[in-house]
UniProtKB/TrEMBL annotation:
This is Crh-like protein. Its main location: membrane. Residues 336-442 are annotated as: Disordered. The lineage of its organism: Eukaryota, Fungi, Dikarya, Ascomycota, Pezizomycotina. It catalyses: Random endo-hydrolysis of N-acetyl-beta-D-glucosaminide (1->4)-beta-linkages in chitin and chitodextrins. Gene3D superfamilies: 2.60.120.200.
């Protein structure tokens, strides 16, 4: 019910609003009033400038905040204290290690359930720190059912990517893959067997990523290794090997939505069944009980003028154009950007003084496909760049439910609502209905109208009230 109500609101907002999110590419960078090119290839402020912001497609390199450095640790998601919604996170990674979109739920016996109710685009957890080489392991069990994809991936802001993907109708295999700077090469995919299956119990999946070698293992057995030296691309003049600081991402997402590309739906095993025996309380779910991160020392030769963040310094985003600096930027509000982070000392009711002055609607929270990754063709397709894209390739993936290019006023990648009570316990009797809200109708998360912008801080409250962006 909540979902239907929200959908109506979105539709109304889309009519009234004009927030067509501008797309960004290397050749067409974001405009000054929405300087940050977010994870899904469109421009905005606020969360667009944090994790996933591509400096090579943003107004300036400083529009995106620098990437906080790797943090070794064991992350158990107990109580979700370490998880904050992308709608609230402003970049202070000293307090929060994980950012969420969608509906992560505390699992009664430990860990976090990534959920996906009908009409939502699932759930994404992304680390607020970046790993620049390291061993990253996730202990998890996947969801099941055609069209449902569970993923554990590493992805950089310039779309280097290392994947474990789990297709819901092939529960005996994990698919491994990698991409370099978002170039979609599906020849790289290789399956690893999982015994007895990915669903009935948790397994430990590890990605071991160094400067020269990348490997994937399941329950301690190394199943696949790729060497950097085998990945030379003469056309591009670089190694097609993941080499830039990357976030850890865990997600559950609806690859089998009818609005996605045909190839994507086929890859995912068919269209999603929203009345499936694999759903519990109206939701699909995957369980993550632990993530461990062992950061490797920065490779010799990296320019280090500090120790707190990784920062891109060149249009060609390869390993040797990233440096380690002491710059850390925390935004004052979601109206702010890396260039204009706002002042932490100004009144909490308004950030208007330093915020960019929007001349049109500005998006503050990127939405769309929690799968992230190279599988996002709406951003690419809408931009007509040299990026290879094909609607029928297995990649051809639109952000969940948001395949219409330029749709405006869409809900976030998993805007969710639901009452507190029903969200806390996944296994609770009636939890399902309360927790299912949100839709995925576009790339734009929350949308700020110019009129609202003038009232400063309170506009945020209005926007969030309208979109019901309450997670956790
Ligand atoms: C080499 O790089 C170019 C430019 O990025 C890309 O179009 C091409 O697909 C790459 N080749 C392979 C085999 O991936
Ligand atoms: C960057 O990659 C090159 C190969 O392209 C390699 O020779 C060099 O050691 C790497 N440098 C760093 C700092 O990772």
């Amino acid at each position: 019910m909540v979902r239907h109500a929200l959908t109506a609101v979105f539709a109304a907002a889309a009519l009234a609003g004009s927030a067509v999110a501008q797309k960004c590419t290397r050749n067409q960078k974001c405009p000054k009033d929405a300087p940050c090119c977010g994870l899904y290839g469109d421009c905005g402020v606020g969360a667009f400038c944090l994790g996933g912001c591509d400096p090579t497609m943003s107004t300036t390199f400083d529009s995106c905040v620098p990437n906080p450095v790797c943090k070794s640790g064991t992350y158990k998601f107990e109580g979700l204290n370490d998880v904050q919604s992308i709608n609230d996170y402003l970049g202070d990674n000293s307090k929060i290690n994980w950012q969420s979109q969608g509906n992560p739920i505390k699992y009664p016996s430990g860990g976090v359930a990534l959920t996906m109710a009908e009409g939502t685009v699932g759930t994404l957890l992304a680390s607020t720190f970046y790993v620049w080489y390291g061993k990253i392991c996730a202990t998890m069990s996947t969801s099941q059912g055609q069209g449902v994809v569970t993923a554990f991936i590493m992805m950089s802001d310039v779309k280097d990517e290392i994947d474990f993907e789990f297709i819901g109708n092939d529960i005996n295999n994990a698919q491994t893959n990698w991409y370099s700077q978002g170039v979609t090469n599906y020849q790289n995919m290789e399956k690893l067997k999982v015994n007895p299956d990915t669903v009935s119990k948790t397994h430990e999946y590890c990605i071991d990523w160094s400067e020269d070698e990348l490997s994937w293992s399941v329950d301690g057995n190394k199943g696949r290794t790729v060497k950097r030296t085998d990945s030379w691309n003469a056309t591009a003049g670089r190694f097609d090997f993941p080499q830039t600081p990357s976030r850890v991402m865990l997600s559950l997402w609806p690859a089998g939505l009818p609005s996605n590309g045909k190839g994507t739906i086929e890859w995912a095993g068919g269209e999603i069944d929203w009345d499936s025996k694999y759903m519990t309380n109206g939701m699909y779910a995957a369980l993550v009980t632990e993530v461990t991160v062992d950061c490797y020392d920065p490779p010799a030769g990296i320019k280090a003028v500090g120790s707190k963040s990784y920062k891109y310094t060149d249009e060609m985003p390869t390993n040797n154009t990233v440096e380690i600096t002491n710059e850390l930027v925390v935004l004052h509000s979601l109206m702010d950007t890396g260039d204009e982070p706002g002042s932490a000392s100004s009144s909490s009711s308004s950030s208007a003084s330093t915020a960019p002055k929007p001349t049109k609607s500005v998006n503050m929270v990127p939405g769309g496909n929690p799968g992230g990754g190279a599988r996002q063709d709406s951003a690419v397709a809408a931009t007509n760049t040299a990026q290879p894209t094909s609607g029928s390739s297995p990649d051809g993936l639109a952000p969940g439910g948001g395949s219409a290019g330029g749709s405006s006023g869409g809900s976030g990648g998993g805007s969710t609502g639901g009452s507190d009570g029903s969200n806390n316990q996944w296994d609770q009797g009636n939890g399902g209905t309360g927790a299912s809200t949100g839709t995925g109708t576009g790339n734009a998360g929350s949308v700020l109208e110019p009129g609202l912008g003038k009232v400063g801080g309170s506009a945020m409250a209005i926007v969030f009230a309208i979109f019901g962006l309450l997670v956790l």
